[in-house]
Amino acid sequence: MFTLKCTKIKVALPFALILILTSLIGCKDSKHEVFDNVDANSEQVSNERPPEVPVSYFKPPLLKQLPLVIDETGEMIWGAATADVDGNLFFAVSSYQQDNNSASLLKYIPDSALTIPRSDVITQLASEGNLDDDIIQDRIQGNMAMAEDGYLYFVSMDYKTETREKQSLYGGRLWRKLPQSTNWDLVLNSDASLATVHTHGQFVYTLGHWGHVLYQYNTQTQRSTNIPVGSVPGHYSRDFLVDASGSIFVPRIEKLQDGEINAVLVEIDESLGVADFHPLNHYWNGDGFGNHGIVSQTLMENGELYFVTSGGYLYKITQNEVGRNVVHELGLFDTQQTNMYISALYSPDNNSLLVGLGRSKEHDEYRWFIRELNTQTTVSYPIVEMPKQSLLLYGAGKNEQGLPLIVGGDKRGTDTYRAVAYEIEYQ
Predict the structure, then answer these.
(1) Alpha carbon distance, N-terminus to C-terminus of the chain
(2) 142-162: pLDDT as tens digits
(3) How far from 256 is each of 69, 75, 191, 213, 282, CA to CA, in Å?
(4) Could you tell me the pTM of the whole model?
């Protein structure tokens, strides 16, 4: 468990003063050095933070590693984890490409710390009668989601043969399974590789690449359809968005005649019709493979949807008075740092705070970023035990406490990554 001991601060203090005091005196007994990255030019000032927000939310949380039992072929958990209605956790472990062509699924029971294998892609393809001799489905990547029909939905893909110039040889699959079952149901075959799943009502969505193709599966009719949205060769967004009303948002990326990259967020309705276009001025941050597009998101209790692009820019989606969606550009998540990669994003109070876990060019370790939305003030805290050169960490689905799971790979002391998973805790 990674800890950061901080002196308790009284609730009635103004928020900016709380952050300054935490920075100056809160962590002197810890090997974590606290940096106060307050934006002194913020025009919005709040005298007091809401009294109902626990003091602990203004300090960095703890990361508790889960004792998952993973076999030697388990390389990484690429953001693929979630909880079922009973609080049990599911993790999808991708395989080492040189050892195994099949990603696998694990069930973890928190009360007993028990890890239960829940089969793998190749085994399930064989049981479905869809197994070619050389088929590869070595990665399960991105969000896994429970749908209203009670099934857990996730996608697999052939990452091993994928290149910038062409799609993979064996494409992707959309799967579903009941939480208590070992068997999976194959619901969609795709020539495109598939990454990440979101649900709303009777619909399940996933994104195919290359080309940002949005797939929709109707759990009631058990039929699927798709709409091509568009992207440049060699690039796909790590995530797309579905808001509380069921609107879907997928980045469209195109290369202009002058060589510049233009990005817009295409708003799509449940009939897969295009409803609107929204500029994304700070989407592009790399040369394709080095750019992951939308990398994290969180939906607030009031319906506001926040997301971060791979360059560290924060956006918010709201509805105006006539019910039209508006995308607001809020600038860098932390104005004191550039090229941040905020791979996990959540709100502990579901209202006034945003917390991100990520890394930046300026620092060697992962950091917690805490942003108070009324003042747009951000502070960051280093996690010195977690060097960014040795870990790849991503936010995933939420546990029973409503906090995201942190998953990825750790190669400290080894030459290769081994899958790891953490839960977030507040004291």
Answers:
(1) 12
(2) 999 999 999 999 999 999 999
(3) 48, 38, 27, 20, 16
(4) 0.88
